[in-house]
Amino acid sequence: MVRIKRELLLFALLFLFLSIAMHFGAWVDHPMAHIASLEKSPLGLWHPLFITALVYLVLLIIRFLFSFMKKLIS
To answer: What is the pTM of this model?
Structure first.
């Protein structure tokens, strides 16, 4: 259960980091309008979650490979 909470926290922090990093100007200038315009986005309403999930999976694969290599070495 602790691991699931940790992974959900990592996903949420990654979501916040990516959304702010990709659209910093919009978040600073007009955050509510930016959130409201998600419906009209060319990438779709759910694109922030899809992008976060993709980055999370890449990080998960990298973490898995590092732990696998660590086990092979020791």
So the answer is: 0.85
pLDDT digits (tens, 9 = 90+) for 29-47: 999 998 899 889 899 899 9
Residues 6 or more apart whose CB falls under 8 angstroms from that of 60 comprise: none
Q: For residues 71 and 31, what is the distance between their CA atoms, to the nearest angstrom?
A: 45
**What are the structural domain ranges in the chain?**
2-73
Per-residue 3-state assignment (H helix, E strand, C coil) for the chain: CHHHHHHHHHHHHHHHHHHHHHCHHHHHHCHHHHHHHHHHCCCCCCHHHHHHHHHHHHHHHHHHHHHHHHHHHC
